Amino acid sequence: MGALFVSHYLTLIFALQVIGAVLLLANRYVPLGLVILAPVIVNILSFHAMMAPSGLPLALFVTVLWALIFVYVRSAFAPLFHARFKAQA
């Protein structure tokens, strides 16, 4: 934890969390906010699943909240799930 603090990596993570949360709370660019928060949530979930299981229930709760918002705006992500790309002329 000390190395992460000294390298200012935690500052970057905090900034990403704040930016993602502000986008969601402001209801502006919600898909972008979800994309910013997704890797942070995956890291939180992985950490608690493997190293500190006492925090796992809260991590799962945050993951469920993220998934609910994702389902609500899933149409914004629909093009990502196409197997082939059709270029428009």
Give me the Rg, rounded: 16 Å
Average pLDDT metric? 92
Number of helices: 4
Q: What's the shape?
A: globular
Query: Strand tally, please?
Result: 0
The first-to-last residue Cα distance is 52 Å
Structure characterization notes:
Helix content is 67%, strand content 0%. The model has no long low-confidence stretch (mean pLDDT 92). The radius of gyration is 16 Å and the shape is globular. It has 89 residues and is an all-alpha fold.
List keywords for this structure.
89 residues; mainly alpha
Quick description:
The protein is 67% helix and 0% strand. It is an all-alpha fold and 89 residues long.
Blueprint of the fold:
Blueprint: H1 2-6, H2 9-25, H3 30-50, H4 56-72
